[in-house]
Amino acid sequence: MNLFVADPHWGWWIVLYFFLGGIAAGAYFSATLIEWVGREADRELARVGYLIAFPLVLLCGVVLIVDLDRPERFWHMLVKSEVVHQAMREGWPWSARSWHLLGRAPLLKWWSPMSIGSWALWFFGLFSSLSFSASLWPSAWLARHFRASLPGRVIQFLGCAVGFFVAAYTGSLLTATNQPLWSDSTWIAPLFLTSAASTGIATILLLTRWRGAVSPEALNRLERADLWALGLELGVFAIFVASLGAVLVPVWSTWQGKLLLLGTPVLGLLLPLAFHLRLGASGRRNALGAAAFALVGGFVLRYAILATPPELLARGPAVFSGTGWAGQPSGGKSSVVAGFSPEDGRTPGGGPGADPGNRPADLQPRSKVFADE
Amino acid sequence: MAEPVGFFTDTTVCIGCKACQVACHQWNDLPAGHGPARQSLPVLSGNSYDNTGSFSDVNWRHVKFIEQFSPDPDRTQAAWLMMSDVCKHCANAPCLEVCPTGAILRTEFDTVYINEPACNGCRDCISACPFGVIYMSETRHVAQKCTFCYDRLRKGLVPACAQACPTQSIRFGPLDHLKHEAEARVRQLREEGVAMARLYGADDQVLGGLNAFYLLVDTPETYGLPASPKLPSRSVPRSSVWSIFSAFLTALAVLFAFRSRTGNRPAEEEP
Description:
Radius of gyration of chain B: 24 Å
Order of helices and strands of chain A: HHHHHHHHHHHHH
Helix content of chain A: 55-70%
Radius of gyration of chain A: 24 Å
Strand order of the largest sheet of chain B: 8-1-10-9
Structural class of chain A: mainly alpha
Number of helices of chain A: 13
Order of helices and strands of chain B: EHEEHEEHEEHHEHEEHH
Largest sheet of chain B: 4 strands, mixed
Distance between the termini of chain A: 45 Å
Largest interface: A-B, 112 and 107 residues
Oligomer: heterodimer
Shape of chain A: flat
Number of strands of chain B: 10
Structural class of chain B: alpha+beta
Helix content of chain B: 25-40%
Largest sheet of chain A: none
Number of helices of chain B: 8
């Protein structure tokens, strides 16, 4: 755990994005899977999944842009801003050189979860918009071709894969930092993925119940999928907690950490599981209770994971300092940490280099004195 | 390509005068005030002789006062360590690694520089930096940190902080030259009996080497430096493998719940 870092202030907007993005991704990949193996009666479930995924992804995009300190520069995530500006100066769209420049404008750093995630979110929006319109207008040209044709199948498969990626990468995004808790476990991404499945299925369950147009058999199957997804999430949560190791104690010492370690499993996992397992006794209302608590638990999980490191950082690195004073040096030896960095191709093994080429040809250093040269 | 340059900060001769901070503020046009508008007067920390506290969007240099007292109730003995902290300009820079816009780049002097017109304020670099160097500017709305006086380097000038340092605690020069100087200084201190004298970041053990490296006389943690800072990407491969594994299991769960046969057998129906 590194307590010498600064807080990035990823607050409510990011909690909201992680929660809604998880639901969208979970609902979408569940819908594609249901459509592949399910029967005609299950199709309505998939339709509901498609109908919620796209509006939520749109909302996620807005939320992410609002969270930026420079919202108007959101497109810098996808293309090299300096190259685009250069192309504009070269007279786009009237010059061949400007088009040539734009050809190398796309920006992707595959080792940076935020960079690759931006692309994944964009593609997820594209795929989910196709599924959305096909579900909204089932008799239109797009819908008929979407379901029957090979390209339609390929798009669905890709959409499913990107959906899984969107569900998981937000966890990797947190792990690929030096913040306490986030960078101490490699199991946040799998945890977010399984939580996306349970919250996505829970949302489909709630909406189909509300619309009331689905056969009881289909709902039974969806509830069974929900039960298994919750069971899987419980297993991954246990591994996540175990993976924290020595970090567990400081995390538990914060109320956000207690919320994470206690609130999430009770609200989001144990209560829904209890509702499910009592399903036979008291009917369908229990499935709704399970779904509602799964959603609450999914939100609490995202909130607690995002809120714990700032709380730890606010306490300062007092844990480390004061171990000795100059008269009695504390001793100790710094250890070596190996890692890979594709940055600048400096890794012994080589690599593509982290420099994405987004530097202006005439880079002007920030300067108060040597202006405009 | 110019020669790689660096800072060698010898903490044993730092007197905590903060001339480096003032020079940095003045050269880089950084306000001294506090609050969003940067207009109210600086506040006193109240718990230390250091009133800067930490790095910030306008404090690219920060002279740390490590005020240590003996454990007896009257705190009869005191020892101060001082260290002028700055962006380390790591060889394998975590901020540069994660930056999704390519706004953070490496200059011809081997330093790490934030190209402000490209930054969109996502704050990924802040969470990635293991030293807590980067902060968002509330007025410019982009990430801010030490530029290594890139503008001065271009003109062949010494960075403002090193120029101002009255005790040569901050030494500027070609990286190779600085490292020889630093090793000689450690040898000298050890001969004089300072057994804990050590370099931090001079070799490639810390993030492939730090262009701004330090001579310390206690553990790195005592100076608020992580003993073993890590690259953000270190966990991505393992995290990805476990995610793919979980995705596979999740897909299986949904597929098995909906496989066509299941619903046909009344025995497996829910009662």
